[in-house]
Design a protein that fits this description.
Helices cover 39% and strands 17% of the residues. The chain is of the alpha+beta class and 76 residues long. Strands 3-1-2-4 form a four-stranded mixed sheet. The structure holds zinc ion. The site of zinc ion has 7 residues, from helix 2.
Length: 76
Protein backbone atom coordinates (compact mmCIF):
# COMPACT_ATOMS: atom_id res chain seq x y z
CA UNK A 1 0.00 0.00 0.00
CA UNK A 2 2.75 2.43 0.96
CA UNK A 3 4.71 1.49 -2.16
CA UNK A 4 1.76 2.34 -4.39
CA UNK A 5 1.53 5.84 -2.92
CA UNK A 6 5.26 6.36 -3.43
CA UNK A 7 4.98 5.37 -7.09
CA UNK A 8 2.05 7.75 -7.58
CA UNK A 9 3.99 10.62 -6.00
CA UNK A 10 7.05 9.84 -8.13
CA UNK A 11 4.96 9.88 -11.33
CA UNK A 12 3.39 13.21 -10.36
CA UNK A 13 6.79 14.72 -9.63
CA UNK A 14 8.71 13.46 -12.64
CA UNK A 15 6.13 13.43 -15.43
CA UNK A 16 5.66 17.22 -15.70
CA UNK A 17 9.45 17.72 -15.53
CA UNK A 18 10.09 15.42 -18.48
CA UNK A 19 7.31 17.02 -20.54
CA UNK A 20 8.71 20.44 -19.70
CA UNK A 21 12.22 19.47 -20.79
CA UNK A 22 11.10 18.49 -24.30
CA UNK A 23 9.68 21.89 -25.07
CA UNK A 24 10.89 25.09 -26.66
CA UNK A 25 9.01 28.36 -26.56
CA UNK A 26 8.93 31.11 -29.14
CA UNK A 27 7.00 34.33 -29.66
CA UNK A 28 4.98 35.16 -32.75
CA UNK A 29 6.64 38.60 -32.59
CA UNK A 30 10.25 37.38 -32.77
CA UNK A 31 12.40 34.84 -34.59
CA UNK A 32 14.02 33.28 -31.51
CA UNK A 33 13.12 30.13 -29.62
CA UNK A 34 13.94 29.51 -25.98
CA UNK A 35 14.05 27.05 -23.15
CA UNK A 36 10.84 27.63 -21.16
CA UNK A 37 13.02 28.63 -18.19
CA UNK A 38 14.66 31.50 -20.12
CA UNK A 39 13.87 34.98 -18.80
CA UNK A 40 12.86 36.02 -22.32
CA UNK A 41 10.55 33.02 -22.69
CA UNK A 42 8.85 34.08 -19.44
CA UNK A 43 8.07 37.49 -20.99
CA UNK A 44 6.18 36.05 -23.97
CA UNK A 45 2.46 36.84 -23.70
CA UNK A 46 0.22 33.72 -23.74
CA UNK A 47 -1.45 34.97 -26.92
CA UNK A 48 1.91 35.15 -28.72
CA UNK A 49 3.36 31.91 -27.38
CA UNK A 50 4.33 29.21 -29.88
CA UNK A 51 5.52 25.84 -28.53
CA UNK A 52 7.79 23.34 -30.26
CA UNK A 53 8.82 19.90 -29.06
CA UNK A 54 12.04 19.77 -31.13
CA UNK A 55 14.59 22.33 -32.38
CA UNK A 56 13.93 21.03 -35.91
CA UNK A 57 10.29 22.10 -35.72
CA UNK A 58 11.29 25.55 -34.50
CA UNK A 59 13.90 25.92 -37.27
CA UNK A 60 11.38 24.82 -39.91
CA UNK A 61 9.02 27.53 -38.70
CA UNK A 62 11.81 30.09 -39.24
CA UNK A 63 13.08 30.41 -35.67
CA UNK A 64 16.72 30.54 -34.52
CA UNK A 65 18.12 29.58 -31.08
CA UNK A 66 18.15 32.31 -28.42
CA UNK A 67 21.65 33.56 -27.59
CA UNK A 68 20.83 33.92 -23.89
CA UNK A 69 19.50 30.45 -22.98
CA UNK A 70 21.21 28.69 -25.92
CA UNK A 71 18.75 25.90 -26.76
CA UNK A 72 20.11 23.22 -29.12
CA UNK A 73 19.99 24.04 -32.83
CA UNK A 74 18.48 21.73 -35.43
CA UNK A 75 20.49 18.51 -35.73
CA UNK A 76 22.22 18.95 -32.35
ZN1 LIG B 1 16.17 32.43 -24.39
Amino acid sequence: MKKRILVAVAVLLFLPASVFAAEFWASKNSNKYHYPSCKWAQKIKPGNLVKFSTPEQAAKAGYVPCKVCRPPGPGQ
